[in-house]
Amino acid sequence: xxxxLQLLSAFLFCLGILLVIFxxxxxxxLMGVELMLNAANLSLVAFSKLYPENFAAQSAVLxxxxxxxxxxxxxxxxxxxxxxxxxxxxxxxxxTLHD
Amino acid sequence: xxQQPILSLLPLLVLLLPFGGFLSCALLRPTxxxxxVIASSTMGLSFLVALLLFFKLQxxxxxxYIATPSYLWLALGTLNLKISLLFDELSSxxxxxxxGIGGLIHLYSIxxxxxxxxxxxxxxxxxxxxxxMLALVMSSSLPLMFFGWEGVGLCSYLLxxxxxxxxxxxxxxxxxFIMNRIGDLGFLLGMFFLFRHLGTLEFKALTQLFxxxxxxxxxxxxxxxxxxxxxxxxxxxxxxxxxxxxxDAMSGPTPVSALIHAATMVTAGVFxxxxxxxxxxxxxxxxxxxxxxxxxxxxxxxxxxxAQNDIKKVLAYSTVSQLGLMFxxxxxxxxxxxxxxxxxxxxxxxxxxxxxGSVIHAxxxxxxxxxxxxxxxxxxxTFITMLIGALTLAGIPLLSGFFSKDEILLAAxxxxxxxxxxxxxxxxxxxxxxxxxxxLIAMAFLGKMRLDDRIVSKLHESPKIMTIPLxxxxxxxxxxxxxAHHSAPIxxxxxxxxxxxxxxxxxxxxKVMPNFKLPSTLRKTLENAYYxxxxxxxxxxxxxxxxxxxxxxxxxxxxxxxxxxxxSRLIYTLPLGSKSKRLFASGNLNSYLLIFxxxxxxxxxxxxxxxxxx
Amino acid sequence: xxxxxxxxxxxxxxLITLHALVAAVLGVAMFYLRSPLFVALSFLGVLLTTAGIYxxxxxxxxxxxxxxxxxxxxxxxxxxxxxxxxxxxxxQKQKPLMLLLSTLLGVVLFASFSLALLQLTTSQSITxxxxxxATTAESIALYLFTHNYLLFEVISLVLLVATxxxxxxxxxxxxxxxxxxxxxxxxxxxxxxxxxxxx
Lengths: 99, 614, 199
Fold this sequence. Notes:
The complex is a heterotrimer. Chain A has helices at residues 2-22, 26-48, 56-86. By secondary structure, chain A is mostly helical. Chain A has one domain (2-94): Helix Hairpins. In chain A, helix 1 (2-22) packs antiparallel against helix 2 (26-48) and helix 2 (26-48) runs antiparallel to helix 3 (56-86). The model of chain A has no long low-confidence stretch (mean pLDDT 87). In chain B, 49% of the residues are buried. Chain B is mostly helical. In chain B, strand 2 and strand 3 (79-83) form a beta hairpin. Chain C is an all-alpha fold. The mean pLDDT of chain C is 79. Chain C starts with a helix and ends with a helix. Chain C has a domain at 136-170. Chain C has eight helices and no strands. Chains in contact: A-B, A-C, B-C. The interface between A and C is large, with 67 and 79 residues.
């Protein structure tokens, strides 16, 4: 059972990476990051089932959720900034890094 | 201590009154006049409470003391930091000095700073300083003392650099702060050592431990610990090798020099040794080090004071020298003598600084004694009070300085911890002290007027608010000797020797020194304080600057930056089409992320195929 | 402790597999859908199915957090931003080559992760069936406040900093201090006046 859940977690994590790498929309890239965090949570919870008396995983999940919330709030704030300065939130527009 | 609860809370009141003054000066935006009144009145009230406590303490049987209920500040594992305020024989004296002289100096400051732009800031700093100093002297344990210790360091920094628009003054403040940090590291380490080996940091507990059994610690460990703590005292009390900050600290306002850099803060090192005296008595090596450092510093600074022309610099070096004498006294085990000299020194040195401030005030900011002279008739009150201060400093018989200095000499002469070298150092220092105090008076007040006509026309005696503290302090300087309580039998030979030294030295200082030409090499050496400061710059500061320049210009700029440029050039020389080259530096986030993910994947796969267990 | 699924008398093992499959399909959909809104909705689906899995594992508290914070707060935030930025008009088609490349990379990534997992299966416990024990909020709280209290404090600080940072970042005209703005406005005025004079 745990193996299946771990495979799902890995699958979702890979999809998160793909979303971040290949989508040109920064909003969707952010969703990819969230998906990765979610996959990590799933993996933690699944593994915690091996040790019923230990709640380290659950508390870690709680903290990760908090981080994820903070991250998305910050990410969207940065997004607003990008939108103002570059006139859009596609990575094709934000190419000032190569100068 | 079974006392009435109100009595045991009074030390807290003494401590918090200056803090209240600080808060109201800092936050309520008082007018210049109000800020001075607030600051002085809080100090005055604090002094009255301290006086009340002092009389209550006298009524208690010997060995008893007043203490506030202890408060558990921090509990971490085996570390239980309890703090309370102690008002015992030692701290009561210091509290009276801080609040009493502090109050007088606050009063004086109202006159001195009357045309300053931000007096509220000045008085806020001054009150905050008194708060920290009181915390330092009344603390019941080393950590609380360290809190006060750092706090007075901070206030000293703020007040030295009070006129921060002047770069030189701001730098002097920074210098004092940094030099003190070096010593404070020693203080901290010593504290850690003590806790590691004894498990407590409270003075009373430490005293009890050391009075019960003798071999608590291995000799070496104890000596190391005590020397580390002494390093803190060296920094705060400006002894060799950390002495160079105090003369520079004179760039602060003169009342600040009087309060912080003569009467109170710089004596904290002596106070620390006195607090831990039962510990120091166990280690002859540490005691010897203290005495020698103090003796050498005393002679060093006294000889420099002989060649300085800035009126405040003379007093600064004199302070260093007198502090050295106090350390000699501590080093030979005469902690009472050290504290007694600390007290009289606080009187007469504060008096000298305030009188010097009055002179500077009268001369519109002129500090060079070569340009003064003949001020005797024009500012008589200042002249008389400063003369009393200088006579006390020189150790003229029947003034307070004579008794305290005599006690140190006596202790050095009789103590088993002492040596002929120390006695010689003290006597030489006394001779030089008498010489430079005579020279100071002669150059500033006697002889011909050498001031510009522009200043002469405006010369005037200082206002009453400044002369009242001067007169009060002169009375204290004259009669402060009454505080002495002799433990050893009086040695009349020594007394006569030191009296003759003082009288003859002062007379020579007045008559001969102002026109005496020292050999030019010697004069230059003395004027530059034996090149100690300059050698620090040569040995430490400049190499450090050069190292950071090398790191910044060569390592960072040339090596790393140019390496990156080189890497990017390398990619452009690859045999690829322009489109695929742009994949590396397109500025597109996606391509960077792709490279990142591919690198990550490579690492992951390599770990597997190389059969590393994750 | 009976949960919803046990009351429906279904075998949780199969239900978990079902949820996992749905989550996987929705995840794939996230990648191939073009409209950001649909991506966000499939993301919501993934989160909901994950919450279902938590529930089936008897992790009621975690499931609730998942629903409230992730599905409730974060996804709503995303959908709001999609509305704000009006992204529907700016969709671009992915190039077929890129699609192929990305799928390939995805397969390689997943394969390597699976390899890593399968190496761990040498330990028996990971493949064996589970006795699903319940975790209460109380026990998590106990653990959190005895073993992880420092982390907890740090997280609270991080949240505070993030809040302040978000406010500062999202403020208008952060790049230009007020004085510069005024100067620019004055310059523009002067230019306008000059233009009028020329006319």
